[in-house]
Amino acid sequence: VAELPAFSSRAEAAEADRLDPLARYRDEFLSREGGPVYLDGNSLGRQPRATAGAVSGLLDEWARDLVAGWERWVELPGAVGDRVGRLLGAAPGQVVVSDSTTVNLYKLAVAAVDARADRPVIVGDANDFPTVRYVLQGIAAAHGRRLRLIDSGPAEGAEAAAIAGAVADDVGLVCLSGVNYRSGAVADVPAVSALAHDAGALTLWDLSHAAGAVPVQLDASGADLAVGCGYKYLNGGPGAPSWLYVRAAMQASLRQPIWGWWGQQDQFAMGGAYDPVPGVGRFLAGTPAVAGIVALDAGISPLLSAGMPAVWAKTRRLVGLLAGRAEELLTPLGARSASPSDPARRGGHFSISHPHAWAATRALIDRGLVVADFRAPDVMRLAPVALYTSYVEAWDAIDRIASVLADPSVGAFVAKRRVT
Ligand SMILES: Cc1ncc(COP(=O)(O)O)c(C=O)c1O
Q1: In 3-state terms, what secondary structure has residue 179?
Q2: Distance between terminal CA atoms of the chain?
Q3: Does the reported pTM lie above 0.85?
Q4: Inter-residue contact 193 to 223 (CB < 8 Å)
Q5: Ligand 1 centre from 163 Cα, in Å?
Q6: What pLDDT sits at residue 414?
Q7: Which residue owns the Cα nearest ligand 1 atom 7?
Q8: What is the model's pLDDT at position 313?
Q9: Which residues are CB-neighbours of 372 under 8 A, at least 6 positions away?
Q10: Does the annotation count 231 as an active-site position?
Q11: Which residue of 13, 22, 88, 373 could cross-link 391, Cys pair, CB 3.0 to 4.6 Å?
Q12: Counting Cβ atoms within 10 Å, is residue 74 exposed (0-12), middle (13-18) or buried (19+)?
């Protein structure tokens, strides 16, 4: 990936905004004029203008159709799943939307572990998002497996050599994140999947910080299984349902641990024994949260319209702008990059570490300057979103962060917090 030319002035950033082919999408999201620069779209995406109408349409259907509405709603996990799949390079029939990411991760990880019953080891990443590590710990404890954690390093991400060293013929499942939640480091999904398959293991990817920001080609990548959040770059709103992907060729051979009626053949026959549908529907469990799926559908529409290549092209430029200006303005104030040094390994967000990161993140929010987020112990994540963050906002955000890091009262606040 070629390195992008750096922005050298705010005027240049303004010119890039003027020429931005995605600029028109900014108005499809609600924002407050003169509000802080929002760099937290990887925690919770902004609300699309269309969401209220979509949810209100569902309320009308509920009022009008009552239980008959289920004739349509029953199709939503698969129909919206297919639309999410289009963003992820997955052909129809491999993605469903329901439940939380944690629950979907559990369902798929147990299915994979059971399918490799003779292999006692699960490979994970010591620096992965807590829920991923906890779910794997729980499965290892309950199913008599061992967890082998690679230490990917807090900024640079997992080296192929470290993963290769951990994956041997005792491994049944390799479960990693496509983009690290703290550093934004991007994993080489095709290379790791090939490595795992050579050893006879299955792969499960948490793509929460990739979906809707960085390019993912699930079918082409060789990944077996994947999950991700609906409320980050997919703009589904707080607690939006998660999506899960199971490669078509594997669906019939995998069994998930929650034997619910939504995965059952002829669901409304109320049959005696559990006999799951052959397709991806077998990874559903209970009644899906329909309002959440409708909101998620509204959230992904602008992404489908803009197309992931354009989204990624702008994301890279925004992240490059943040990284370049952070180096210039924040390094002299004691900040360090907490993202990969190689731009080609950076995903949709850029992180800095600083001893006062917690107090600075708070001060930026309290003063209405920038909404970023803090990740323990000392990282501030900056997540621009191609559909609604402008280049000028990214430029200004670093100035504002610099002003807060240079403010002695912020450091004093840290000292006070430690004492109390
Ligand atoms: C990588 C990753 N996985 C999972 C989750 C959360 O999962 P859940 O929606 O089940 O809380 C997050 C939340 O930020 C995350 O960053």
Answers
A1: strand
A2: 48
A3: yes
A4: yes
A5: 22
A6: 64
A7: 101
A8: 97
A9: 39, 40, 361, 364, 380, 381, 382, 383, 397, 401
A10: yes
A11: 13
A12: middle
pLDDT tens digit string along 150-168?
Answer: 988 888 887 778 899 999 9
Ligand 1: atom nearest CA of 231 is 9
Residues 6+ apart with CB under 8 A from 88: 95, 207, 211, 216, 217, 218, 226, 245
Measured distance CA(194)–CA(205) in Å, rounded: 13
Q: What beta strand segments (E) does 68-207 contain? A: 95-97, 121-125, 146-150, 171-177, 202-206
Question: For tokens 């994970």, what's the residue?
Answer: 124
What sign does the dihedral 394-399-403-405 (CA atoms) show?
positive
- Order across the sheet with 379-382: list the strands: 336-337, 350-353, 379-382, 373-375
The residue behind tokens 């409320």 is: 231
What is the distance in A from the centroid of ligand 1 to the CA of 149? 19
Annotated active-site residue 206? The verdict is: yes
Low-confidence ranges of the chain (pLDDT < 50): 1, 418-420
Residue 101 Cα to ligand 1 middle (Å): 6
Of 7, 29, 106, 129, the catalytic one is: 129
Is the shortest distance between the CB of 177 and ligand 1 below 6 Å? yes
229 in contact with ligand 1, CB cutoff 6 A: yes
Using CA atoms in the order 198, 202, 206, 207, what is the torsion angle rounded to 10 degrees? Answer: 60
- Can you give the pLDDT at residue 325? 97
CB of residue 389 inside a 6 A radius of ligand 1: no
Looking up tokens 């906002």, which residue turns up? 393
The set of residues, in sequence order, having a beta carbon less than 8 Å from that of 77 and lying 6+ positions away, is 96, 97, 98, 262, 281, 284, 288, 293
| Closest ligand 1 atom to Cα of 129 | 1
* Phi, psi at 311, each rounded to 5°: -60, -45
pLDDT tens, position by position, 29-83: 999 888 999 999 999 999 999 999 999 999 999 999 999 999 999 999 999 999 9
Report yes or no: 112 and 204 within 8 Å, Cβ to Cβ.
yes
Distances from the Cα of 85 to the Cαs of 168, 194, 342, in angstroms? 31, 21, 29
- E strands along 290-386, which residues? 336-337, 350-353, 370-371, 373-375, 379-382
- Strands 202-206, 225-228: pairing kind: parallel
Q: Which residue has 């840290």 as its token pair?
A: 414
Nearest to 230 by CA among 221, 217, 239: 239
